[in-house]
Write a structure and sequence with these properties.
The protein contains 18 helices and 9 strands. By secondary structure, the chain is mostly helical. The chain has a 3-stranded antiparallel sheet with strand order 1-2-3, covered by helices on one side. It has a two-stranded antiparallel sheet with strand order 4-5. Strands 6-7 form a two-stranded antiparallel ribbon. A hairpin with a 2-residue loop joins strand 6 (about 330-335) and strand 7. InterPro entries: Cyt_c-like_dom, Cyt_c-like_dom_sf, Cytochrome_c-type_DH. It comes from Pandoraea capi. This is Cytochrome C oxidase Cbb3.
Length: about 500
């Protein structure tokens, strides 16, 4: 029934801004950032990949890879990598985050079209790891040609063309300008909304930025015009981003785990810089900024929640370093399968990470001394949940088995399922309401379609079913009520 989830603009302004105007700017900033991070924004699959599942479980709630006003290199709530493919060197990945602005970096001498094949290969690895296609390739469009609609409560953004087309894409950009977009959120002709997560990419090394640039310059140009964002006043104002960047753009992000090993340090770069995990999994403050006091502590918006990825929270849901590595690499682990926002992340991004990078990322999330995974209660008391059990046997057990252990190649286990074990029940409820489309994973593994029950079950029935699943298979409290379901159904 359910799997598991893990996972900008400046414009010219006058020299004087009144206090009243600044207040309006700050308000606009908050709303713009919220708009950019709408959890219901779809992430289209690469044309050659399976379609994205119905349920959106990892919100784009904080820039999760949403393209903003100008072409940008990479966007995705998923873990990314900074090394080359297995056959290429990975030296720059462990370098400290680059901090110099583009104004102090010497221009790249060789044109991108003449970039060495090794650099292009490495850039392709990075672009896949960073999930660029998710926001810059529409389902029926040319690779990286943009056009992806990114809906929000305040209007619709459209993914931009990042092919080397000189009129519509980034073909006129230099490597310096590309780096500045990633590092400072500034494109040649405008500044970016923080929907393009330069707040994380700011830590990216110049070498990795240049590699991604070289790869993008090697793809086929597409003469596809960029669509103008459809934003209403005051959300279409850009000047507020100047104040936002001044207040909140920092060089580094705090760590959620502890460690000093080579894997941990490498994983920090993968998660905090390229993977920009914090953009979805860290709570936001009043003005849409990352809450530095709660790194990777989980965040929620609208119908879905980006789960808490701190070591204790992962261990409480049964995760180990080995299981995380398997999940990122294949999309399936004992704790469930990738679906919702995490499904295209695996297909477009993390399945391409090297084994070393998968291990490093997983090590960083749990730390060098990972807490032991929490066991489930041996004999949960479901005596007061018979209505929910009967519903489970009637509509779920055929696929997930009467004892909740699932069926190989058909449906994941409910017993110990990471989504079932989340304290916040919204992802479980939304999955029951919306269903999950058929999933194909790397290799021969697949999971069949799960229908949504929004028209088959009442709010009361879904709350009863949710409570049974949480108590019987997740070790959680049976505290879901009809009102919670009703609210999620209406959103």
């Amino acid at each position: 029934m359910t799997g598991t989830t893990m996972h900008s603009t400046r414009a010219s302004r006058g020299s004087r801004v009144s206090r009243w105007g600044l207040r309006v700017a700050c308000l606009a900033t908050v709303l713009l950032v919220t708009a950019c991070n709408d959890s219901n924004t779809p992430k289209p699959p690469e044309p050659t990949q399976p379609p994205k599942p119905k349920t959106s479980m990892i919100p784009s709630l904080v820039t999760n890879a949403m393209a903003a006003d100008a072409p940008a290199a990479a966007s995705a709530p998923a873990a990314s990598a900074a090394t080359s493919a297995a056959s290429a060197p990975a030296a720059s990945a462990s370098e400290p985050a680059a901090k110099a602005s583009s104004a102090t970096v010497a221009p790249t001498s060789a044109p991108a079209s003449q970039a060495p094949s090794e650099l292009i290969t490495r850039g392709k690895y990075l672009a896949r790891a960073a999930d660029c296609a998710a926001c810059h390739t529409s389902a029926d469009g040319a690779p990286f040609a943009g056009g992806v609609p990114l809906k929000s409560p305040f209007g619709t953004f459209y993914g931009t063309n990042i092919t080397p087309d000189k009129t519509n894409g980034i073909g006129g950009w230099t490597a310096d300008e590309f780096y500045r977009a990633l590092h400072d959120g500034v494109a040649p002709d405008k500044v970016l909304y923080p929907a393009m997560p330069y707040t994380s990419y700011r830590q990216m090394t110049r070498a990795d930025s240049d590699a991604i640039y070289a790869y993008l310059m090697s793809v086929k140009p597409a003469a596809v015009p960029n669509r103008k964002h459809d934003l209403s006043f005051p959300y279409n104002m850009r000047f507020a981003m100047r104040a936002w960047d001044w207040m909140f753009l920092k060089d580094t992000l705090p760590d959620a785990s502890k460690g000093q090993s080579a894997d941990w340090l490498r994983g920090r770069y993968l998660a905090n810089a390229l993977g920009h995990c914090a953009e979805c999994h860290t709570p936001r403050g009043t003005f849409g900024q990352l809450d530095k006091a709660k790194p990777l502590g989980g965040a929620a918006l609208a119908r879905i929640a980006a789960p808490d990825l701190t070591p204790d929270a992962l261990a409480a849901r049964g995760w180990t370093v080995k299981d995380l590595q398997t999940f990122f690499g294949t999309g399936i682990a004992p704790q469930g399968s990738a679906f919702g926002e995490m499904y295209p992340v695996v297909h477009l991004s993390t399945q391409y990470l090297t084994g070393d990078d998968l291990r490093a990322l997983s090590t960083y999330l749990l730390g060098d001394a990972p807490p032991a995974p929490k066991p489930l209660p041996e004999h949960p008391d479901t005596s007061k949940l018979m209505a929910g059990r009967n519903l489970y046997l009637a509509v779920c057990a055929g696929c997930h088995a009467a004892d909740g252990t699932g069926k190989p190649h058909v449906a994941v286990s409910m017993l110990g399922n990471s989504t079932v074990r989340q304290k916040d029940p919204r992802n479980l409820i939304v999955t029951i309401l919306d269903g999950v489309e058929a999933q194909k994973f790397p290799g021969l593994e697949a999971m069949q379609d799960m229908p949504g029950f929004d028209r088959r079950l009442t709010d009361a029935q879904i709350s009863e079913l949710s409570n049974y699943l949480r108590v019987a298979y997740g070790g959680q409290a049976g505290d879901v009520n009809s009102e919670i379901v009703k609210q999620l159904r209406q959103k």
